[in-house]
Amino acid sequence: MDRTRTTRSVPTDATLTETPRLTVYIDRSCSICRRESDALANAIPSEQLEFIDCAAPGFADAAAGRAGLSAATLQGVLHARDANGRWLRGADAVAAMYRMAGLQRLAALFDSPWLRWLSVPGYWLFVRSRGFLKATGLASVYLAAVERILQSRANPKQQNDSDQAAT
Length: 167
Prior knowledge:
The protein is α+β, with helices and mostly antiparallel strands. It is 54% helix and 10% strand. The chain has nine helices and four strands. It is globular. The relative contact order is 0.13.
């Protein structure tokens, strides 16, 4: 049973308001974070997803302040807040972003009960290894795959045409 299903249900027209379904606090000074959030922002309607740069000069966010989250805390690990005000962090925030983009299988890598023993420490390892991942190009490989998946979901016919042209 998906323990987070209630926060991931599709809203009716009556529930769509100016408040996005998921607000994600990212460190845009991190090139990995910036590239992934840009790809997701292009794939998900803005009424469903909002990215806030917690590394921006003078960052202040009322919801984060009420939760006792400083800019430094938000920059250290990915945080997201759903439309009900529930805070998610780390692997849970990543899974919520991917689910919002329709990437159910990728999200399952982060929040499946069978894989959490790997995804939670894996996320923390990623956070502490961002410099290494950038330097070795591993981050670019991962991000290119995510971008390709998002692009193929946005325009499947264009993806099929390019796949046929490549053969």
